Amino acid sequence: MKKFHYFWIPLAVIILDQISKILVRNYIAVGDVIKITRKFIWITCVQNTGAAFSFSFGNAIINKIIFISITIVAIILIIYFIKKSNSRLEIISFALILGGAVGNLIDRIVIGSVTDFIWCDFPDFLMKRWPVFNIADSSIVIAICLMIGYTLFYRKDPVEDK
Fold first, then answer.
1. What domain range is 103 assigned to?
2. Which of 32, 116, 121, 124 is catalytic?
């Protein structure tokens, strides 16, 4: 299987992610909200110096150093996993994660924070509104869902007892 054929996936994610973030930064002021639908999907502009769900170490410079370092290590591991994998779905999933990781890494390096802009309202059983996210984040979540589904329902590897 020619795995380099799958590198169009992270490239597409990175391009869509960066174009969308540039448009948001240029046309929406931080904190402004554009309601695409009355309640479900809103577009806003948030500069996140933390990680997922705005997890933070409390200092923007420390966040930048730690999250850039972690992301670089993760990118190296993801490329290794792509090279080692023989499953098309795993390779696609890792490629989606790679694109998302690089998309957010570009923001951290260039502007010092990650631009988030998609704001959705899900049923109120967990929180009032879902945290603001972006295309890179979506790519990572889609990949994780694919991997979970593959592992739970399609993987044919025998389970070994230890």
1. 6-154
2. 116
